[in-house]
Amino acid sequence: MNEQTTTDLRETVRLRYAAAAARVAEGDAACCGPEPVEVDENFGSSLYAADDRDALPAGAVAASLGCGNPTAVAELRAGEHVLDLGSGGGIDVLLSARRVGPTGKAYGVDMTDEMLQLALSNAEKAGATNVEFLKGTIETIPLPANTVDVVISNCVINLSTDKPAVFAETFRVLKPGGRIGVFDVVADDTLTSAERGDRGDHVGCIAGALSFAEYREGLQAAGFAGVEITPTHAVADGMHSAIIRAVKPVAVDAPSGMTESVDACCGVNACCTPAETSADPALTVTEAKSASGCGCQN
Fold it and tell me: What pLDDT, on a 0 to 100 scale, did the predictor assign at position 258?
């Protein structure tokens, strides 16, 4: 995929979600409240339990465009820090904030100004004080390494045109021992890229989906262990909404047979802080990051 195609697809996705946010915001200001922006039974707020929907502002529920409920499968615990990739109107961030409680925190990252504005409005209406929404892309997450315990996402990773970068960034921001619990669209291994495109477009969460094998290999290449991919329901012929779970190992194999300490990232202890040092005394910090292919080069 060339750079122009990548740029065009990202802009198409941004425009679609900006329009969805605008529709919800307009409906929220009307007397009857917002209407859901997704009517397909395979996507949207109907995939959340009624108790979850009833506990949130109508605008957060109406803006849901996902293919599942990641907060129901991520096994969130009190005090944990959670990051939602592609947080949209904030439904999963707000649900996460309720689950981790006042000693925890829920972050959301989104590239669309209109969705971020909607999410902030929803957080204010919900009275949520342990949330933070960040503008950015899921290929370059605006958080330091080793920040969060859990990464969730709801039918967003398939929209990325650089999924290896998403997996690498997810691995980077997770603490050692951290985990992912995401919903995404996944294709049967027998379907070619062209056949996936025949079943739906990129912005509709179909054409850009990885196969089961590609998803597993991508996560493993980024360093994840314990990868589990469980289909939940069909969204097109040979295409499935699926739960994806994986874990960032507590100890990562380092060059020359060394074992990194538990607070090391990319061959560096205390990565991205003033106290960072190379886990291998024979290498400088820059050399250690370069050798490991670390995405955090600053």
Answer: 37
Write down the pTM of the prediction: 0.73
Closest C-alpha among 213, 245, 217 to residue 229:
245
Could you tell me if 211 and 277 lie in one domain? no
**Which residue in 208, 218, 199 sits closest to 9, CA to CA?**
208
Tell whether 203 and 282 lie within a shared domain: no
What is the C-alpha separation between 83 and 153, in angstroms, rounded?
Answer: 8
Burial of 3 (0-12, 13-18, 19+ CB in 10 A): exposed
Q: What is the end-to-end Cα distance of the chain in Å, rounded?
A: 27
For residue 271 the two structure tokens come to 């990565």
Residue 250 has pLDDT above 70, yes or no: yes
Read off the DSSP letter of residue 47. Answer: G
Under DSSP, the state recorded for 140 is: B
Dihedral sign, Cα of residue 211, residue 212, residue 217, residue 219:
positive
The strand pairing partners of 139, in sequence order, are none
Q: Do 243 and 262 belong together in one domain?
A: no
Q: What is the rounded CA–CA span in Å between residue 215 and residue 240?
A: 13
In the predicted model, is pLDDT for residue 192 greater than 90? yes
37: which 2 tokens?
């922006």
User: For all residues of the chain together, what is the average pLDDT?
Assistant: 79
Residue 243 tokens, joined: 């739960």
User: How many C-beta atoms surround the C-beta of residue 101 within 10 A?
Assistant: 14
Q: Which two tokens mark 74?
A: 């991520």
Q: What angle do CA 119, 121, 122 make, to 5 degrees?
A: 65
In a domain, 298, yes or no: no
Three-state secondary structure call for residue 13? helix
CA angle 162, 164, 170 (to 5 degrees): 105
